[in-house]
Design brief:
Order of helices and strands: HEEEEEEEEEEEEEEEHHHEEHHHEE
Strand order of the largest sheet: 11-10-14-13-12-9-15
Distance between the termini: 125 Å
Number of strands: 19
Largest sheet: 7 strands, antiparallel
Structural class: alpha+beta
Helix content: 10-25%
Length: 374
Amino acid sequence: MRKSITVLIAGLLMGMSAMLVSTPHVKAATYQITNLEYNSSNHPAPYKNKTNQSVAMWNQEYTKKIHDLKNYYKTTWYVSMTATIKHGNQSFKAWYIRNDSSLGGWVKPSAVTPGYNFKGYPMIQKKWYSKYTVFHLKDNSQNAYMWNWKHSKVRHNLKNYPGVNWTRSESVVMQHGNKKAVYYYLTGNTTGNGRLISGYVWRGYLQKGLNPDHTGQNLVYPEQFPSTENYVDYVNTNHTQKLTKQIAALFPNTPIDLNLSQIAIYNYGSIDEFIIGDEDIDPMPTTGYKDIISFRPISYKLWQNSNLSDTQKLALVKTELNKLGYTANKRAKLKDYYLGIYLIDNISDPYDMVVQDGGYGHANGYGLVLAKKA
């Protein structure tokens, strides 16, 4: 009897299994995007969440939920696309909304309402610049915070980078509650040969113009000095300028001139290929100078032998000057001349921020000329 019952149960289970296997699969209805239109406005209207309740945001293909609007209760949104979504026998309107960092998704229009969200720091005005303007800190002892686009996280304190020349590419007006403030989007190199950092900084911290302070900078380009006096101070005090100072001392009665130093490196120098100026950079105008004497062969030998010590390089310069007839006695008599000198002497380039190609971790550039004022 037990055997009969066991066989009966086994047969029933097999029959049920066969029924399960043969049941046809019913595919779930998918979402189809139709009537897609892009918002081409340069000044799209702002929107904010209409409710604090959960509202799903869908990915661009409308295949899965990726965000919940309630998690972005301080965010201002902008409509970048509109469409009709078809789902089975139903259809409905949808907007693809984004914030200022391009985070976005599809929602129904009823999920948002017009207006900026002043719980955060929305950018109510924006302006981009085709020409970059240079700024530096008004007060290096004062905290000057650099923010992310949401003004929710401090990226850096500019007080820690007193020697940086900051370039502005964008200005925005942020509003929080009833208060408005202008911020600049700035970019700068932490040490001249270090990392690039960027973010939004309140303009009240800043002063327009080249930075006269070069503290912490391993590299300052020749066009980044506001005056000859500032450049001479850099040569005399910066730890990377030991060789520049020693070579300048070979011309005891020939003062250094900033503009002539720019001419020396860009017109007559031997340099690696710079990031800031490609190999086809236009020569500097020589207006205001006459009787220019170029020591390009010496610059080239320094560049060829950049791995030598400063002592060896100085000896090389003395030898080559003597060969050209510029002995110590003759150099001491050059009272009507000015000295153009600019050296990047085997500076570390760990981030490849200085040399475009072939620097092998270091940057070099040597320029040396003499000239009279016209």
